[in-house]
């Protein structure tokens, strides 16, 4: 059995959980999330805890045991506290700005790149226009849109210019040696 799957998911106060067979719904102060799991896992609610159990000993059921528990935990944490990813922009003249809810990136192209947030995700730009914070209740959506923002101009290895996650280490290459005469 999965070690992660065996652990119960604690439900904090202010979070409502609704289980209908394989359909899981969580509602909290930061929003509402739903997910339908394969019918190889069962959910039981005991007091303020959700327990996940596989229905059989098949390989797929064992694999989904820990996965389902992790997804349920992420849903509960997301609607209660939320998730965020921070990105930094490096490069002369590179900047980000908000236009309504949309993020506008000026990162060395001849045009600006506009990124629309998916439902439940918000962008925030720091005061220097070089720090981007992506916030939302769905961990997968926050990570996906952050990866799409980074993909607009990934950090290059010679000068380090581009968009990177905060704290990401970009190893720089030496570049050309000098001209030999």
- First-to-last CA distance: 68 Å
Strands, total number: 13
Helix content: 10-25%
Structural class: alpha+beta
Return Rg in Å.
Answer: 21 Å
- Read across the widest sheet, the strand sequence of neighbours is 11-12-7-13
What is the succession of H and E elements? Answer: HEEEEEEHEEEEEEHE
Query: CATH topology of the largest domain, anyone?
Result: Outer Surface Protein A, domain 3
- Contiguous helical run count: 3
Strand content: 35-45%
* Overall structural domain count: 2
Question: If classified by CATH, what would the architecture of the largest domain be?
Answer: Alpha-Beta Complex
The CATH class label of the largest domain is: Alpha Beta
Biggest β-sheet strands, sense, barrel: 4 strands, antiparallel
The CATH homologous superfamily name of the largest domain equals: Ribosomal protein L6
Give the CA-based shape.
Answer: elongated
Descriptive keywords:
four-stranded antiparallel sheet, Outer Surface Protein A, domain 3, alpha+beta, elongated, 2 domains, 181 residues, 37% strand, 3 helices, three-stranded antiparallel sheet
Question: Could you provide a short overview of the structure?
Answer:
This protein is an alpha+beta fold.
Walk me through this protein's architecture.
The protein is an alpha+beta fold and 181 residues long. The protein has 2 domains: 3-80, Alpha-Beta Complex (Outer Surface Protein A, domain 3); 83-165, Ribosomal protein L6 (Outer Surface Protein A, domain 3). Helices cover 22% and strands 37% of the residues. It has a 4-stranded antiparallel sheet, with helices on one face. Strands 1-6-5 form a 3-stranded antiparallel sheet. Strands 2-3-4 form a 3-stranded antiparallel sheet, with helices on one face. The radius of gyration is 21 Å and the shape is elongated.
């Amino acid at each position: 059995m999965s070690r992660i799957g065996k652990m119960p998911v604690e439900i904090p106060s202010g979070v409502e959980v609704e289980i209908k067979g394989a359909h899981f719904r969580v509602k909290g102060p930061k929003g509402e999330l739903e997910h339908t799991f394969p019918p190889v896992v069962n959910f039981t609610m005991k007091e303020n805890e959700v327990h996940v159990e596989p229905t059989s000993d098949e390989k797929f059921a064992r694999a989904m045991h820990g996965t389902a528990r992790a997804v349920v935990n992420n849903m509960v944490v997301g609607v209660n506290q939320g998730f965020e990813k921070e990105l930094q922009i490096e490069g002369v003249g590179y900047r980000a700005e908000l236009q309504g809810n949309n993020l506008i990136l000026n990162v060395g192209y001849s045009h600006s790149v506009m990124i629309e947030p998916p439902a439940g995700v918000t962008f925030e730009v720091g005061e220097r226009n070089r720090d981007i914070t992506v916030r939302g209740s769905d961990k997968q959506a926050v990570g996906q849109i952050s990866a799409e923002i980074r993909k607009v101009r990934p950090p290059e290895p010679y000068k380090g210019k581009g968009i990177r996650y905060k704290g990401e280490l970009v190893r720089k290459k030496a570049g050309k040696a000098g001209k030999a005469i």
